[in-house]
Amino acid sequence: MNKKETLQYLDQLGIEYEIVEHQAVFNMEEISLPHPEADAKNLFVRDDKKRKYYLLTVKGDKRVNLAEFREQNDTRRLSFTSPADLKEKLDLTPGSFTPLGLLNDQKHEVSFYLDKYFADQPRIAVHPNDNTATIWLNPQDLLAVVKKQGNPIKVVEM
User: Which is more confident, 28 or 2?
Assistant: First the structure.
C-alpha cells in the first residue's frame, strides 16, 4: 500500500489519526514535529540465516542493543537488513519504512516488536508508508491493524 491507500485503509477501519504533511525526511533530526513524546523509530533486522525478519519500533531517542534483544527474545544473531530486503519484504525504501509497511507483507514474514513504552501512551508517530507525512494514532489501534494483517506481534521492553 502506498500513502494514499494506507490512509484510505485506516479510514475504512475507522481509525482516528492526526496527519502532518512535510518534506521527505530520512532521520529524526531532519524535522521538528508536535508530540515529541510519541516519536518512534523503526529498525528492520534479520537473523543471520536470512530466514526471520523483525520490525522493531521504539521511542525515537532510544538505542536498541541487538545482542540484548536477541537474548531476551530468543532469536538468532541479528543484523540490519539491506535496502533490497526492505523493498522485497515490505515494498518500501529506507526512510519510509514503518509498522504500517507490514500491510505490504502478504506472506506475513515479518514479526513486529513494539517497545513497551508505547503501551501506555496515547499516541505513536509513524509514516503512512511514505516519508513525506507523519501520522499520530493510538498505539492500540496500530497493534489492531497489524494483528488484522496477520503478522506476529510482541510488545516487549527494549
Answer: 2
